[in-house]
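Summary for the steering committee. The consortium agreed at its last meeting that each partner would contribute one worked example illustrating the joint modelling workflow. Our contribution is presented below. We chose a case with several input lines so that the handling of multiple components could be demonstrated. No manual editing was applied between input and output; the record is shown as generated.
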Amino acid sequence: MTAETTSRKFNIDTVAHAEATPDQALPWAELGLKENEYRRVEEILGRRPTGAELAMYSVMWSEHCSYKSSKVHLRQFGEKVTDAMKEHLLVGIGENAGVVDIGDGWAVTFKVESHNHPSFVEPYQGAATGVGGIVRDIISMGARPVAVMDPLRFGAIDHPDTARLVHGIVAGIGGYGNSLGLPNIGGEVVFDSVYQGNPLVNALAVGVLRHEDIRLANASGAGNRVVLFGARTGGDGIGGASVLASESFDSTKPSKRPAVQVGDPFAEKVLIECCLELFKASVVEGIQDLGAAGISCATSELASNGDGGMHVELTNVLLRDPSLTPGEILMSESQERMMAVVTPENVAAFEAIMDKWAVEYSWLGEVTDTGRLIIEWAGEKIVDVDPRTVAHEGPVYERPYHRPTWLDGVQADAFTTSSAGVERPADLREAVLELMASPNMCAKDWVTDQYDRYVQGNTALAMPDDAGVVRVDEETGLGVAISTDANGRYSYLDPYEGARLALAEAYRNVATSGAAPLAVTDCLNFGSPEDPEVMWQFAETVRGLADACQELGVPVTGGNVSLYNQTGGVAIHPTPVVGVLGVFDDVARRTPSGWREDGQAVYLLGTTADELDGSEWANLRGHLGGRPPALDLTAEKTLAAILVNCSRDGMIDAAHDLSEGGLAAGLSEMALRFDVGARIGLDELCERDGIDAFTALFSESQARAVVSVPRSEEVRFNDMCTARNFPTMRIGVVDTENRALDVQGYFTLPLDVLREAHEGTLPKHFS
Amino acid sequence: MTSSPVETPLIGGPQPLAPADAASPLDGVSVGVVTFPGTLDDRDAARAVRLAGGSAVQLWHGDHDLQGVDAVIIPGGFSYGDYLRAGAISRFAPLMEQITAAASGGADALPVLGICNGFQVLTEAHLLPGSMIKNESLHFLCRDQRLRVENAGTFWTSEYAEGEELVIPLKNQDGQFVADNRTLDELEGEGRVVFRYVGGNPNGSRRDIAGISNAAGNVVGLMPHPEHAVEAGFGPDSSARGAVDLRGGTDGLGIFTSVLKKLVG
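What follows is the complete predicted structure of the assembly.
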């Protein structure tokens, strides 16, 4: 390889060559840069960039890496954080992932990210490497990854292309995550034709560490050595961040498959164990995973977050494909690689750990205090930049935005008065069956059975319960709950409220499991920021989410923005996926989503109004208009406090939040969870809330949950709700004798019939 | 856990990792748990040994020393990524030479249990016959699986009764046990089919076989994961022994207590 690089060095565009040939044309447009951006690079350098420098700027200044369109809005997540919200924050936004204190010296790091574009082009590898990337972010913080979740959105369930994506994406997530030994404890599967050409594949990972083990991505200490380890660098994923993730799909352009990375989960599993051993032995000063923009990102971020200088010899990079040019090596997004900074005295210890795990490594160079990132190729300088201009001082755009002209018309078209909604179904039994068999409300076992939920032995709740729960400390039972939620239809109708509703639902889910909500991560999936109407949706979403986080007192600790999710001129619904993390002092008190004990009372917490706009029922009738359900965050807070206290004091045996599909879905899922029926009466509820039985069952009013209360606890339970002035009503009783959901006066639905409808849908389409 | 004076609604707290009874004679029995690159369920298997009352010893695939352990578990995972063929690379590990030699000895041969990927390693190492191919569905499958104990005479099943049913999590991609008919007949005839799937064959395994043993009964391999049904609160939602609390299934614990008691006895 040395001989080869030597023979190739004469073709390399060195800094000296760039200075000597100022007029040489460079392919900046093909690499995704706009003309003004290219001129800015020239201005920063005072000359034309070399090919290698151009490669670095093009990927690091891409939308995906630089957040250039979203940055001006995302600031609100920092600005709207109060001191009280910072109480549990050990590391906030800006690092690889946020870190939250959960007590007893333990901390948790978690983050959700998108891998949408690659997963459409190459579903298996795109989804697999999405898991790999987020897991490396977690390792980079010094944490052991302990669980993953995958919120997924596909096109119409019966579209011919959907099966290709579902099979590939689910197998990719399973194939990678299962091989890492990470339990998959939750997520979402949603079908909607707006995602037909732009499926959303978001991946969340959570990791656990002791406070003192937090690691940050910075390169400090001149003379410290810089090492690249893990998989070799190949030609996969070149331009993944710039050309693939930062542009819309267009059928006239060639396939983007070469821009998708290929994953090797075995290499990643070994990398996890090897990194944890490095941390334990305290032999790395700073560490950074290689994801989007590969070595360009790792070198420029490590250097600019530390003492500001780094000197690297690029021919030291171990290659899978020796024909790669320096620019390609800098841009490659080959997976399962990490970069670390090691003091000279720890070099031997570092190498011993690499050798134990048979992980390849190469020493690339060292940290300097020059403030310059210098990259050489066989001794000739090919990059000479201020790393901050690459990593942090990219372009920032105040994209124009305006409220969509069509929104007034859409909001005026309420479901109840529309032709689709004016006539309500006469047969509520059939309506419930139709709802529970529908693509979005049906059982997702076909998907989740392809994921390992047991590995590590700490999973206390997983699908289909409201939140995933894992134990952190085996001695005390300390643990965390996580839930992710989004409702693209609500956000389409009102992006400000939609974002708040997504947060409220995730918050409610975590509380329903019994955990106290603590922190937020978000993955904001949108169309093109160059469309002012999409940009308005984005701005409204961020404003709504930041406001709601402040009102609920939970900070955003990190996340990701995915723009350009559109094909041709058609954008997806704005889809802010919100993940909420909560903490348990002991996971043994978690609350499952199904009742089991005969004679327990079934209570509905909260009130129900006629709120069917954007609902699953309206969706089944092909209607999308009106306004999303009203949100009262004070009520959400009170409800959460009640649910957490009930769990702590042993007042309830089951709880399920009401959201998509309303009470009909809630009761059905609670009965199916452990195959135990209930007798439910709606009359008193209809009378109190002034609604009919259909509305009671299908409305998606917020701040509601159903719980089952042991008889011995009913007085205490009612007293607590009364003391907090929260509306509650006994609507039925658990009935183990009769395996049916019996809504008295309306219908009796045997659980076998309900289960057949609920569980048959995905196998029918995909088996 | 709760200030409630009445019934606790959920499950008991997680059990301590130390042996339940410190004075237990099982405490002195040490069970090695092997880690290959890509092994996943090693910490889980070690936890199961401790919950059963024994001591778990971590063994590294590259070592040449069994550290004097009384029994060995080769746990689940994707050793070497299952590349080439599940278990095909791991069988060449230095430690496997020690294990193969010790397990093949006469009367006091080393008890060895292979779980999932460990079972695949044991077949590749020819300690057990047959082989595993991709599940009939071609998908990875994770589900709570019902099994029947067909032979309660092995080192790893003596705490069960013959014919007893268990619920144990199953999770694998290459779980379909195959062998030629003569081998299958031999396994059946010699009582070496140790576990059989009941209530539906999950992966197309020949004759519903979930686990087998060698002729001496000291080496057992099975595809489902007993180490994930040992701790109330973190196991399956059901048990073959009747209703249990949420994730309260612990039907797998007997596998680990079997070998400990057998070794003490």
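Chain B touches chain A through 47 residues (CB under 8 Å). Chain B is about 20% helix and 20% strand.
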